[in-house]
Amino acid sequence: MHLSTWLLFCGVTLVVAFTPGPAVLLAVSNAISVGPRRAMISSLGNACGLFLVSAAAMGGLGVVLNTSATAFMVLKVAGAGYLVYLGIRQWRSRTSVFAELQPSATPAPSRSARRLFGHGVTVALTNPKGILFFSALFPQFLTHDAPILTQFAVLTTTFAAGSVLAHGSYVLLARLLKKQFANPKRAQLFNRVSGGAFVLLGLSLLRLRNKTA
C-alpha cells in the first residue's frame, strides 16, 4: 500500500469517525454517567467490534447482506432493537453526575468494565451500516501488489484508532461540560435527550435499504 493511499484513507477515517453516530453517542453518554476514563472502556470495545465487523465484511458478509433481503432484515432489526433498548434504558436512568460531584450524595450505581466493553462491541456488531461501509470502502484502498491480510490489518487498525481518537475527543468535551449537568434536572434532561437520540438512531436503521430492496 502506498503512503498516499494510506493518508487518503486516514482522511476518510477521521471524517467518518468524528461524524456523530451510535458509538459516539454511547461514548458521550457514558462519559456523563460513569466518567471519562470508564467511558473509554466502551470505546475500546467498539474498536474491537470494528475488527470483527471488518473481518466479516472481508469474509463476504457484506455481499450476503447486499444479496439476501432476509439476512439484511434480521441484522437491521437486531441493530435497531438494541439501540432502542439503550435509549429506553438511558431515558429511564436516574444516574446523575450530581451524585459524583457532591460527596454527600448517594453514589451512583457503577457499571462493570465487562458490561461497558460489551456495550461497545455490541453497538459495533449490530450496525449493518458498518458492514456495508467496510464492504464498500476497503476495496477502493486495497492494492494488488501487497498481501491482503497485511492491508486488512493496517486499514482496520487505522480505522479503529481513528474511532478511539474521535471518542476520546467527544469524551473530553463531555468532561468539560460535566459541571453543566451537576443539577439533577439538567442531568435528567440529558438522559432523556440522549435516550431519545438512541431511539431515533435505532428507528433510522429500519429505513436503511440494501440493493435488493
TrEMBL record:
Name used for this protein in its record: LysE family translocator
Compartment list: Cell membrane
GO cellular component, one term: plasma membrane
GO molecular function, one term: amino acid transmembrane transporter activity
Record flagged with keyword Transmembrane: yes
InterPro entries the UniProt entry points to: LeuE-type
UniProt keyword annotations, A-Z: Cell membrane, Membrane, Transmembrane, Transmembrane helix
TM spans (from-to): 6-32, 44-65, 71-88, 121-142, 148-177, 189-208
Organism: Acidovorax cavernicola
The organism's taxonomic lineage, starting at the top: Bacteria, Pseudomonadati, Pseudomonadota, Betaproteobacteria, Burkholderiales
Keyword Cell membrane annotated: yes
